[in-house]
Amino acid sequence: MTTPADRSEAVRHHSKRMGREIAMQYLYSCDSRGDLPGAATFETFFEALTGEYGHTDDRLMHRAREFAVKLYELVALHQEEIDAILRPRCESWGWERIGAVDRAVMRVALAEMLYGEDTPVLVCIDEAVEITRDFAGAESGSFVNGVLNAIKNDLPKIKR
């Protein structure tokens, strides 16, 4: 039997996954158009996204939206620092040759790893790999896994 606490935990887990995907898609969209992330463009993006997929205004979508906003704001606030950490790990491939989806996913994951409050680093990496595989394919997922694991190994142990 599923308890209300179990359902609440499931909503929280799924809303975080959805939030990560929404943040990645939004940052990908901004990157592709050369726009800076911001509240106005996020609202337009989110309305189009929810309208396209027929999402209702329920608790799950509300929590996913809140988490997506938190993540894209962390990326926007710390993008120079995030990119300064990512770029050296991608030198052999070339930053501009990396797919925009891969860049967006790694930025979101690294923002959550470094500036997020309660998500273990390994969960951030696992989620990033799965999202990358879903949106860009298995090869991209392996690439993102390698980059983020190399960064994880350099993080202070307390953050792991």
Description:
This protein is mainly alpha-helical and 160 residues long. It has a single domain, classed as Orthogonal Bundle (N-utilizing Substance Protein B Homolog, Chain A). The protein has 6 helices and no strands. The chain has helices at residues 4-33, 39-53, 59-89, 100-115, 121-136, 138-154. The longest helix has 31 residues, at 59-89. It is globular and about 40 Å long. The protein starts with a helix and ends in a 6-residue tail after the last helix. The model is unreliable at 1-11 (pLDDT under 50).
Estimated structural class = mainly alpha
Identify the CATH homologous superfamily. Answer: NusB-like
Any guess at the CATH architecture? Answer: Orthogonal Bundle
CATH class: Mainly Alpha
If you consult CATH, what is the topology? N-utilizing Substance Protein B Homolog, Chain A
Strand content: under 5%
Extract low-pLDDT stretches: 1-11
The helix content is: over 70%
- Main beta sheet: strand number and arrangement? none
What does this entry show, briefly?
With 160 residues, the chain is mainly alpha-helical. It has one domain (4-159): NusB-like (N-utilizing Substance Protein B Homolog, Chain A).
List the helices and strands and how they pair.
Layout: H1 4-33, H2 39-53, H3 59-89, H4 100-115, H5 121-136, H6 138-154
List keywords for this structure.
mainly alpha; 160 residues; 6 helices
